Fold these 3 entries.
Entry 1:
Amino acid sequence: MARKSLKIGLMVLKLLVSANFIMVGSLKVIGAEDAVSMFLHYGFPAWFCVAVGLGEVAGGIGLWFGKTAKFALGALMTIMSGALVTHILFKEYTGALIVCVYLLLLIIIAFAGRSLQSGERPAFLDRII
């Protein structure tokens, strides 16, 4: 029963996280004015906004396919690590905190997914539950 609940919880978490990355990434890909101006404010070129958006969309989709899930997690964690550094450098600590939450969610997806595939209970759940 606990294993089934963990699978359902992981699916819901992946759905929410991937939907967010797909939605936010799509805005960057289409060149939404707010997204582009944010990248320009940080000193990045406008094309970098599109590149990050493509990575977020691809990562959000890739989370759902077994063979690409590891790469998608790695790509999204890399993007979020860059966002974290950028927010800290610009002293935007609220933004940095939000990025930390997404990094934590990606780490949970990575460890829970790996544990479910191996058939064992994720060790980090023993400390939480």
Entry 2:
Amino acid sequence: MSALAPVLDQPQALPRRRRHLALVSDVPARPTSTTLPAVAVRLTARGRRALLVTVLAIAILGGMAVSAWASGPTASEDVTVRPGQTLSDVARERLPELPLSAAIAHLQLANDLNSAQVSTGQRLQIPAP
């Protein structure tokens, strides 16, 4: 143990750490020319295909949006409520392809009705299903 004692008693030198930030005094100035060098852009075959698919997708979606906008609202039919007729009767007669509850809901939404109450002589719009 006595042979190790002198080695252990001596302070060990710590490794010197590198500084993360350093002061740089000689920074080269930026070039003052206002023109940028011309850089040629080249697309690979994969890039050309991706560009083509993107342009086609935008064109198709734009065409669909324009056609939907141009078509406007669908035509609806007007019906006058007869004496003794209920909203269920109108829904059953005019929208037979829909379940009765869905047909009533369509009529209420199309005519801004809060309930199923209708009056004789009231005009109702029948929406396209």
Entry 3:
Amino acid sequence: MFGYQIIKAAGRSMMPGIQHDAFLVVRPARLYRINDIVQVAHPYYGAIVKRIVWGDNTAGFYLAGDSQASLSVEQIGRISFNQILGKVRWVINPKQLNEKIASF
């Protein structure tokens, strides 16, 4: 609805901010900036969620995970604007969801 997608995080590369099994609300943006967390269609790794650490909307971006267990910037390589599926707008970690359900 309105361009938003809800996806489920798999893995621990974005911990501690995004935990395994977190729900992410993603929406495309006109511009992306350094520090944005984005979902990307990677040609080798498939759909991945990483943080923009360098680059711009014209020349492309370099991404990294927040955890040391993540792929390296070199492994991910340069990402073009067209490969970005959207910016993560909200994160609902499993603990937050469980607390909300328990108090309902």
